[in-house]
């Protein structure tokens, strides 16, 4: 029987959870909450290195993801193993998420915002939409995925959804005390941080991450934030 989790973070790729919610996750685990990561793709296309084989990159990114999750105090990482840029809104993918929701029974689910306009990674849009549909109504309704009942997976109602990378922010999380852990977790993703450093022209992670988190905290009484669109699931 799967041990329940307070929070399920469902990310399209390795490193998305740390970018979107790493500081918030660190605060939750510091306070004793049980957090589980679900990573939907292997991230096997996330490089500009022409000499890197996709299979090798997938291995590297899984290792990096496990290390980053450990840095945040995350209890467990579930890898679904879809190819990067290969996610589709299918009944099979949706059912996988429903199974996880019913197994872990989280109160809070965190994922990418499916409604970000124009330039947005397709895997992010699809992950967010599939998770939203899985939360409501599929995980809730006993007549959805009835074979899961035979596995002992009873319906479950999620209390709230948090969407990162949203253009409609209505909730900011204070990460002033956990920013360093967010940065440490991101540094575990060496294969990706190198790509970003080359793009931005600086190897100093904090030189661009801290100002971003300061911007997200504008108008609040704390210094550094992560920003989300929060939905309370009333039904």
What do these coordinates show?
The protein has a single domain, classed as Rossmann fold (3-Layer(aba) Sandwich). It starts with 6 loop residues before the first strand and ends with a strand. It contains eight helices and seven strands; from the N terminus they run E-H-E-H-E-H-E-H-H-E-E-H-H-H-E. The model has no long low-confidence stretch (mean pLDDT 96). The chain has 235 residues and is an alpha/beta fold.
Structure summary:
The protein has 235 residues and is of the alpha/beta class. Helix content is 43%, strand content 17%.
The chain-level structural class is: alpha/beta
Give the CA-CA distance, first to last residue: 27 Å
Helix content: 40-55%
SSE string, helices as H and strands as E:
EHEHEHEHHEEHHHE
Overall spatial form: globular
The CATH superfamily is identified as LmbE-like
Strands, count: 7
Low-confidence stretches: none
CATH architectural grouping: 3-Layer(aba) Sandwich
Order of neighbouring strands in the sheet with most strands: 3-2-1-4-5-7-6
Average residue pLDDT: 96
User: Which CATH C-level class is it?
Assistant: Alpha Beta
Number of domains: 1
Number of helices, where a helix is a run of at least 4 consecutive DSSP H or I residues: 8
Strand content: 15-25%
Main sheet record? 7 strands, mixed
């Amino acid at each position: 029987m799967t041990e329940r989790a307070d929070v399920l973070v469902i990310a399209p790729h390795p490193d998305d959870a740390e970018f979107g919610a790493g500081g918030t996750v660190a605060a939750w685990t510091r306070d004793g909450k049980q957090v589980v990561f679900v990573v939907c793709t292997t991230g096997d296309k996330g490089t500009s290195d022409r000499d890197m084989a996709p299979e090798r990159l997938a291995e590297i990114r899984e290792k990096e993801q496990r290390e980053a999750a450990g840095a945040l105090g995350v209890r467990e990482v579930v890898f679904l193993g879809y190819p990067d840029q290969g996610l589709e809104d299918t009944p099979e993918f949706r059912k996988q998420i429903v199974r996880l929701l019913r197994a872990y029974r989280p109160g809070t689910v965190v994922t990418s915002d499916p409604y970000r306009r124009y330039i947005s990674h397709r895997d992010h849009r699809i992950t967010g939409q599939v998770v939203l549909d899985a939360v409501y109504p599929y995980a809730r309704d006993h007549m959805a995925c009835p074979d899961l009942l035979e596995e002992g997976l009873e319906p479950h109602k999620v209390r709230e959804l948090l969407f990162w990378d949203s253009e409609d922010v209505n909730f900011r999380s204070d990460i002033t005390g956990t920013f360093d852990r967010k940065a440490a977790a991101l540094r575990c993703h060496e294969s990706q941080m190198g790509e970003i450093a080359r793009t931005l022209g600086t190897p100093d992670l904090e030189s661009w991450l801290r100002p971003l988190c300061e911007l997200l905290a504008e108008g609040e009484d704390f210094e550094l934030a992560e920003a989300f669109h929060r939905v309370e699931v009333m039904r």
